[in-house]
Amino acid sequence: MTIRDRFETAFSACPLVAILRGLTPDAAPDVGDALVEAGFTLIEVPLNSPEPLRSITLLAERLAGRALVGAGTVLTPAQVGAVADAGGTLVVSPNTDAAVIGATVGAGLIALPGYQTPTEAFAALAAGATALKLFPADVATPAALKAHRAVLPADTRVLAVGGVTLDSIAGWRQAGADGFGLGSNLYRPGKAAADVARDAAAFVAASRHSG
Predict the structure, then answer these.
(1) I want to staple 193 with a disulfide (CB 3.0 to 4.6 A). Which of 30, 65, 145, 155 is the partner?
(2) DSSP helix/strand/coil, 92
(3) What is the pLDDT of residues 101-148, one digit of tens each?
(4) Which one from 8, 37, 44, 120 is the annotated catalytic residue?
(5) Has 191 been annotated as catalytic?
(6) Does residue 146 carry a catalytic annotation?
(7) What is the Cα–Cα distance from 179 to 27, expressed in whole angstroms?
(8) DSSP-based three-state secondary structure for 13
């Protein structure tokens, strides 16, 4: 099974990406277990977290066969290489950068670049993006996504990321969101694994109900 196939399988099982900004290596195992037990299959550790590559390695090894792990806030091709060396498979960026997307595709990893306009969306797809991250979603609004959907290829996966809450998921779904990235409403540094598990389960339930 290719990495792309593994992503499609994971996304179909649960179209939610856990964004663990601020995660430390010490907390990574328990938080990772909590997320997977709640149903999550996609996990990112932003590179502006403490020792992010170490956390990615720990999570990738611990959750092998259960979840895909990668990095967020990936801004350069060099960082793509570091993520690959750490065992990550997801490369998530806040922006559309053809060089980063190209490096990700070249490394055989999953490219999830951020976009805000149709111009950026089409540029990302042309560069080889696996899926698109509408970011920040709370600025774009569901109405904007609905307009994007009118022109994007029908099979393009779009995730709404930024300010997504349990109450807003249904509206985003109706506008055409295929999935979601969940940050501070799911995890904050120091949050107990039990609390992460509770909130993760609630988001999984909301996503399934809205889908």
Answers:
(1) 30
(2) strand
(3) 999 999 999 999 999 999 999 999 999 999 999 999 999 999 999 999
(4) 44
(5) no
(6) no
(7) 26
(8) helix
Determine the Cα–Cα distance for residues 171 and 158; give it in Å rounded to an integer: 14
Collapse the DSSP code of 27 into the 3-class scheme (helix H, G, I; strand E, B; otherwise coil) and give the result: coil
Task: Give the model's confidence band at 210: pLDDT under 50 very low, under 70 low, under 90 confident, else very high.
Answer: confident
Measured between alpha carbons, how far is residue 119 from residues 62, 87, 156 in Å? Answer: 39, 32, 14
Identity of the amino acid at 15: P
> What's the rounded Cα separation, in Å, for the pair 87 and 173?
32
Residue 72 token pair? 């967020």
The predicted pLDDT at position 211 comes to: 63
Side-chain-side CA neighbours of residue 135 (13 Å): 22
DSSP secondary structure string for all residues of 141-174: HHHHHHHHHTTS-TT--EEEESS--TTTHHHHHH
Mean pLDDT of the chain: 97
User: Pick the catalytic residue: 51, 61, 133, 191?
Assistant: 133
pTM over 0.70: yes
The DSSP-derived string for 43-64 is EEEETTSSSHHHHHHHHHHHTT
Which one-letter amino acid corresponds to residue 135?
Answer: F
In the 8-state DSSP scheme, what is residue 73? Answer: S
Q: What is the pLDDT of residues 154-189, one digit of tens each?
A: 999 999 999 999 999 999 999 999 999 999 999 999
